[in-house]
């Protein structure tokens, strides 16, 4: 296997030339996301015109020049299991394509499994066995070994064949429009912004808190997110969820009381004043402005029966249309639908199960009572 390793602007010229004449970009990323909020790009792999390019973002090159001159949002970007790759592109390159083809999702629509890995798909479609012996590589460490480089190159080498063959099969199966809709939905989800004011609802155990306690948790959750983003640290590094719940319950008004609630001394030293300010702000809410009590799905009458019934409808439709049930509806998506029903459709947006190709396939749900 041959590849072109690029770690300088001068070496980038051949890639820019190849990219400018190509309507499709076959791409993968290697990254590390351990002690940071944003993933750190370690290597960018491209397959263009029959050549694998390994672009070293830690080398002496201007990646932004590559984006400005050669990345066009209207080009088709082909990736495998692309959700994290899109995150990497957004945060490290400031770029998000408008057209994508995810080979893992395509394989799922063709009933090859809900989340078939790249190596397994290459073997299934191309009949080629790939070694996956470098999965634990620290992609920010230098120098990269020859084995690591060949491993990274292989992750884009076969994307062209996968794209061509999967595209053909999607058309033959009459699922190409469904797939295109799914890709547009995926891009749209990456363009959506996080609302710090609603993050408290995602805290595990928030359902146990009273509305007054939720007001404090709401302020803590918004502050934690904003701090994680500004400091580029994982949310749990800023403040763990169990401590957030204790602070919301006890509503401490001093350093000593925060320590008694389980706040580590290091966090008290670093964030003490900010945490006390959050708690004070939460305590200032008027009762009419308290967040609503969070209802668990399991607390709704007939939830278990309803969930089982919807899951049966999904399983039947999945079998009939030859797609994995997990592609049609995860537990989270089913719960989103049931929550919408229980709230009498209070949200303006229809749940995912009732729109697009899922709405067509699961039309039975529209009359479900």
Overview of the structural elements:
This protein has 369 residues and is of the alpha/beta class. The protein folds into three domains: 4-191, Ribonuclease H-like superfamily/Ribonuclease H (Nucleotidyltransferase, domain 5, 2-Layer Sandwich); 196-289, DNA polymerase, domain 1, CATH 1.10.150; 297-367, HRDC domain (DNA polymerase, domain 1). Helices cover 50% and strands 11% of the residues. It has a six-stranded mixed sheet with strand order 1-4-3-2-5-6. It is globular and about 65 Å long. The termini are far apart.
CATH architecture of the largest domain: 2-Layer Sandwich
Integer average pLDDT = 94
The fraction of residues assigned to DSSP E strands is 5-15%
Strands of the widest sheet, in order across it, are: 1-4-3-2-5-6
Shape: globular
CATH superfamily of the largest domain: Ribonuclease H-like superfamily/Ribonuclease H
Number of domains: 3
The count of β-strands is 6
- The first-level CATH class of the largest domain is given as Alpha Beta
**Low-confidence runs of at least 5 consecutive residues:** none
Number of helices: 17
From the alpha carbons, calculate the radius of gyration and give it in angstroms.
24 Å
Which structural class do the helices and strands define? Answer: alpha/beta
Series of H and E elements: EHEEEHEHEHHHHHHHHHHHHHH
CATH topology of the largest domain: Nucleotidyltransferase, domain 5
User: How can the largest sheet be summarized?
Assistant: 6 strands, mixed
Distance between the termini: 58 Å
Estimated helix fraction: 40-55%
């Amino acid at each position: 296997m041959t590849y072109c390793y690029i770690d300088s602007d001068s070496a980038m010229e051949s890639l820019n030339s190849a990219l400018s004449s190509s309507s499709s970009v076959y791409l993968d990323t290697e990254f590390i996301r351990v002690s940071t909020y944003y993933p750190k790009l370690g290597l960018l792999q491209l397959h263009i015109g029959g050549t694998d390019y390994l672009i070293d973002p830690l080398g002496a090159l201007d990646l932004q020049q590559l984006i400005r001159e050669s990345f066009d949002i209207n080009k088709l970007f082909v990736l495998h299991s692309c959700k994290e790759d899109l995150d990497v592109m957004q945060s490290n390159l400031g770029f998000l394509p408008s057209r994508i083809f995810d080979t893992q999702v395509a394989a799922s629509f063709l009933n090859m499994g809900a989340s078939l890995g790249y190596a397994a798909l290459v073997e299934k479609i191309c009949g080629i066995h790939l070694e996956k012996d470098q999965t634990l590589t620290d992609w920010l460490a230098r120098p990269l070994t020859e084995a690591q480089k060949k491993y990274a190159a292989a992750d884009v080498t076969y994307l062209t064949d996968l794209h061509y063959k999967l595209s053909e099969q999607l058309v033959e199966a009459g699922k190409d429009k469904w797939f295109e809709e799914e890709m547009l939905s995926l891009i749209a989800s990456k363009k959506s912004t996080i609302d710090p004011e609603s993050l408290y609802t995602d805290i595990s155990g928030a359902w146990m808190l009273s509305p007054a306690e939720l007001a404090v948790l709401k302020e803590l959750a918004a502050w934690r997110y904003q701090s994680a983003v500004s400091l580029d640290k994982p949310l749990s590094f800023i403040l763990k969820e169990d401590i957030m719940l204790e602070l919301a319950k006890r509503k401490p008004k001093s350093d000593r009381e925060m320590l008694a609630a389980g706040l580590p001394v290091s966090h008290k030293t670093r964030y003490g004043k900010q945490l006390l300010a959050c708690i004070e702000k939460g305590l200032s809410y008027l009762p009419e402005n308290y967040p609503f009590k969070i209802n668990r799905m399991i607390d709704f009458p007939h939830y278990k029966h309803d969930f089982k019934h919807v899951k049966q409808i999904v399983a039947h439709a999945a079998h009939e249309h030859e797609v994995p049930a997990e592609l049609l509806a995860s537990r989270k998506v089913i719960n989103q639908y049931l929550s919408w029903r229980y709230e009498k459709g209070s949200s303006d947006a229809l749940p995912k199960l009732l729109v697009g190709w899922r709405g067509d396939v699961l039309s039975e749900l529209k009359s479900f009572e």
